[in-house]
Amino acid sequence: MLRMRTLKTSEAAALLNVSPNTLRAWERRFGYPRPMRSPGKHRLYTYGEVVSLRDALNDGLSISSAISRAREAVRADTHVLLGALLAFDRGRADEAMEAALALRPLERAVEEVMLPSLEEIVVRDGADSAPWAFATAWAAEWVQRARRITPTPARPVRVLVGDATSGPYDRHALSVRTLELCTARAGALVITLPVSGVPGLGKVLASHEPDAVVLAGAAAPDDDVARWAYAIRSAVGALPMLLFHREVRGERVSAAAGRTLDERASVAARQVVDAIAQRERSTTPVAPGSTPRTMSA
Question: What architecture is domain 6-144?
Fold first, then answer.
């Protein structure tokens, strides 16, 4: 998988022939180029975005027009991927994502290129069509490959995802796979189980010892979700219980669930990790041999 090239603020400013203050001013005013943050909270700009903006400025465009052109160049990746998927061409689809990774972080490549392409296929052909089945199968495989090469964090937290989708071709399924990827990249060990699978759940919980639970997807009935959540609470106590791509529709689920996460997987992943950190700050460690810990939702 192609490694994305990034630039520090000073490097990006030099490439654009402006001062770092001007670059930050453009970021505040136009939201472009949009940086990531390093582990030390320093700005890191994607090389492709900066080069696209430089080329537009070199053509004599004003900054607002140059940013519009640069953004359009970035959006073009979506059209390339969509064309590959509609042609049922896995190789071209892989190449389109490799090109997308040259311009943006992996999370943004998925959310800004892959997911919009699949949504366009839903609009054109429907979520029960052959083009959708092909595209979502390819996308799920791509996301799983990306997850497999995600480094294991040194001191990870643990997250249990309750899959409440109807299966791999559910419209929300790829968003759930993306959440798993983004949560792993945010520093968590993630395990996913279907919410219909209550027997033997205690054995998994004893081994995995999750710090938070995410109920993800809208297809499973509320009764199944409530039974699954109750089994977790019975085994390990009141863990933070979060919702992703699911509305609270019944009293039993409402009693089990906590906050609703952002629909964007990259944002939701940070919210999950932040919820765990907040809980750790608000609880007092219990000495070995004393009363077992409980966690407030």
Answer: Orthogonal Bundle (1.10)
